[in-house]
């Protein structure tokens, strides 16, 4: 039988326990801790990148096939505008009613060729006829009054001559008596009273003749003045009669010139008033262009400015000959002539685009015209990067404009690509991502 000593057993257990404690001791950098440290570092690095290095600009995904992309280029900038011109006759004569009345007869229809003096309409106006008759009656009365006054003047002249002749006879008799009595009185043959009576009779007759002469001169002048006044009144009345006659003649409307009666807007039985437009005649000997231009360019338009347009495959020049400064609905009008004559086959009423040159061609950086301008005012654009997949907002400065290009002053370089279609759907995004 084996007996175990208690002390030795305890020693043995302690030795075994110490050996087991040394084997189970754990390491600090175990797998779990390493994973936590690496993961935390990655998160911190990501946050730091987002804070300090990532692109924080607002972005928008857009469909590339719905955009218009244009290249910035260098070339010749022609400053011009495209306007629309309408062919018009060189001269258009308005037909306005000189007098009013109702249409009694319509002889020519619109669209017909007419010759100068040809009757177009006949009007009727009874009031004008009545006024003409009254004026003629007044002229006839004045003619009779003038004839009567002249006749009366001649009669008065005969009577005045007769009166003066009788006075001269009496004066001669009185003078004979006076001379004889004067001699007899000197010889003291007759009394002084007889002498003085003969003297007074003679002197009375002489004074009567002077008064009669003065009276006759006054009557003569008065009669002449009446005749002059009647003659003046008669002349004015006769002119008035002639005016009324011409007015009646104007009831027959005639063509003032030869040409095409392009319109005549009246019918038989209709009533037209004085001054009313009833049609127009086109002079087909030449044509001009009537052009409407935006008021923005009014300070740059002048007589002599050139333009050109294409007709039947050929280019034709035009020149501004007249400017109408009145602005209506934001536009004003000019007339343009054909320096070398109107093209053959051109017709009234045709419209055509005209290129109106505003300045000489100059070398410049060019950006094609597009809808972006209405959204940005030309202050900025979206410029594509080299990959063509991203477009960023960039401030630019534009100068002049023609229907094809803007002149680029700052912000772009030749060869760069710009989105030139409308930006209406992009809001205030700074970057566009293509997809």
UniProtKB/TrEMBL annotation:
GO terms for cellular component: cell envelope; membrane. Keywords: Coiled coil, Membrane, Transmembrane, Transmembrane helix. Pfam families: RND-MFP_C (PF25967). Residues 364-421 form the Multidrug resistance protein MdtA-like C-terminal permuted SH3 domain. It is found in: Cell envelope. Gene3D superfamilies: 2.40.30.170, 2.40.420.20, 2.40.50.100, Helix hairpin bin. One of its GO terms (molecular function) is transmembrane transporter activity. It comes from the Bacteria. This is HlyD family secretion protein. The chain crosses the membrane at residues 34-53. PANTHER family: BLL5650 PROTEIN, EFFLUX SYSTEM COMPONENT YKNX-RELATED.
């Amino acid at each position: 039988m084996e007996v175990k000593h208690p002390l030795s057993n305890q020693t043995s257990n302690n030795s075994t326990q110490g050996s087991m404690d040394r084997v189970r001791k754990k390491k600090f950098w175990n797998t779990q801790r390493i994973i936590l440290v690496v993961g935390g570092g990655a998160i911190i690095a990501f946050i730091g990148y987002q804070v300090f290095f990532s692109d924080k600009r607002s972005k928008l995904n857009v469909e590339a096939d719905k955009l218009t992309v244009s290249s910035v280029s260098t070339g010749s900038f022609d400053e011009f505008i495209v306007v629309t011109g309408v062919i018009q006759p060189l001269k258009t004569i308005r037909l306005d009613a000189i007098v009013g009345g109702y249409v009694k007869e319509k002889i020519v229809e619109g669209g017909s060729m007419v010759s100068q003096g040809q009757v177009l309409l006949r009007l009727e106006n009874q009031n004008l006829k009545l006024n003409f008759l009254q004026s003629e009656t007044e002229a006839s009365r004045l003619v009779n009054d003038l004839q009567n006054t002249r006749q009366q003047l001649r009669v008065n002249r005969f009577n005045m001559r007769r009166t003066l002749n009788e006075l001269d006879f009496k004066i001669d008799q009185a003078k004979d008596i006076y001379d004889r009595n004067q001699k007899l009185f000197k010889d003291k043959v007759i009394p002084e009273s007889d002498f003085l009576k003969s003297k007074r009779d003679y002197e009375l007759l002489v004074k009567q003749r002077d008064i009669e002469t003065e009276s006759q001169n006054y009557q003569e002048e008065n009669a002449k003045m009446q005749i002059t006044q009647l003659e003046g009144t008669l002349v004015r009345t006769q002119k008035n009669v002639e005016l009324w006659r011409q007015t009646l003649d104007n009831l027959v409307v005639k063509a003032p010139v030869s040409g095409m009666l392009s319109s005549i807007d009246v019918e038989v039985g209709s009533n037209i008033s004085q001054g009313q437009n009833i049609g127009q005649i086109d002079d087909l000997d030449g044509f001009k262009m009537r052009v409407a231009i935006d008021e923005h360019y009014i300070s740059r338009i002048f007589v002599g400015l050139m333009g050109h347009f294409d007709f039947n495959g050929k280019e034709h020049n035009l020149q501004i000959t007249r400017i109408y400064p009145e602005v209506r609905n934001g536009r004003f009008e000019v007339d343009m002539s054909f320096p070398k004559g109107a093209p053959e086959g051109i017709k009234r009423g045709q419209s055509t685009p005209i290129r109106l040159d505003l300045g000489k061609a100059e070398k410049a950086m060019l950006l094609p015209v597009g809808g972006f301008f209405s959204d940005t005012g030309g202050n900025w654009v979206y410029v594509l990067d080299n990959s063509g997949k991203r477009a960023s907002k960039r401030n630019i400065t534009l100068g002049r404009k023609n229907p094809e290009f803007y002149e680029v002053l700052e912000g772009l370089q030749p060869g760069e690509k710009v989105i030139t279609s409308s930006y209406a759907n992009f809001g205030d995004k700074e970057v566009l991502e293509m997809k």
